[in-house]
Amino acid sequence: MKPLVVANWKMNPTSLRAAEALARRIAVGLGNVSGVEVAIAPPFPYLAVVGRVTRQRTVLAAQDAWAGASGAYTGAVSPLMLRDLGVRYVILGHSERRRFLGEDDGLINRKVKAALVARLIPIIAIGEEHRESQAVTPPVLAQQLARALDGIPRRRLRAIVIAYEPVWAISTTPGARPDSPDNATRRALYIRKLLVKLLGPSVADTIRVIYGGSATAKNASSFLATDIRGMEGLLIGGASLNAEECITIVQSIRKKVRGDKS
Q1: The whole model's pTM is what?
Q2: 253-261, long-range: CB < 8 A, 24+ apart
Q3: What percent of the chain has pLDDT over 90?
Q4: CA angle (1 as vertex; 202, 187 as ends), nearest 5
Q5: Which of 75, 106, 124, 138 could form a disulfide with 128 if both were Cys (CB 3.0 to 4.6 A apart)?
Q6: What is the pLDDT of residue 262?
Q7: Nearest one of 19, 15, 147 to 7, comparing CA atoms
């Protein structure tokens, strides 16, 4: 299974011209990507232009989607609209939406269901708010994961993505610093055990677990362990707004995967 790198631009940049230029630089720098799947998640207004500029080199991701197909929901964006634009992935449950917009587990569950109906692949973000001892597994991980998947048939959950993104490690959090690769790997193994328990081994085996939280070109490849099935990609924020750094992250992951196989 290819590693997945998701570039989450968040509410940046603030002009269409800048978004198009950034997307073009990333696409040109990546060339013909092989060995790593790259998804770019720009703000909603830029999806069409980014998709056009990066076609065949990256795939589109959305930063959120509403919990229904259509209706009187001013300002909301339907997963069907996203699908029509060529979006493949959608990030759901990001901690910034939980903190700043008050999204709870019930709403995130409904969003996951709506995304799956629209044939989008949810990237479900989970993570604890405060840094714990490496020996302690935060119970919130099991809670968030179980509630996000509640009531969804197992067969529909094949190939979804789980993003472990501890709030304390996100670059916008005061005093943030990345998790250690060893601890991130332990979290990935724990999440896989939860997935097996919730969904059974055949479905759990199709699901990628990726890491997010202050990943940069310097530390990106260290989060992927190819000797065991640990993290299988990254959700990157601030680093994805620098084309050269984003490209370097993808190249470092591709190099590590190829090097470990050779």
Answers
A1: 0.94
A2: 253/3, 253/5, 253/36, 253/220, 253/221, 253/224, 254/3, 254/33, 254/34, 254/35, 254/36, 255/221, 256/221, 256/224, 256/226, 257/3, 257/35, 257/36, 257/224, 257/226, 258/35, 260/226, 260/227, 261/226
A3: 79
A4: 75
A5: 138
A6: 42
A7: 19
The residues assigned a catalytic role are 94, 165
pLDDT given for residue 2 in this prediction: 92
* 249 in Cβ contact with 236 (< 8 Å): yes
| pLDDT one-digit tens code per residue, 67-84 | 999 999 999 999 999 999
pLDDT at 56 (0 to 100): 85
State the distance between the two ends of the chain, measured CA to CA, in whole angstroms: 17
> At 68, phi and psi to the nearest 5?
-150, 165
Q: Which of 112, 74, 118 is nearest to 94 (CA)?
A: 112
Cα gap 59→175, rounded to integer Å: 32
Q: How many CB atoms lie within 10 A of CB 164?
A: 25
- DSSP codes, 98-122: HHHH---HHHHHHHHHHHHHTT-EE
Q: Which residues make Cβ contacts (< 8 Å) with residue 241, sequence separation at least 6? A: 9, 12, 13, 22
Q: Are 67 and 100 in contact (CB under 8 A)?
A: no
Residue type, 62: A
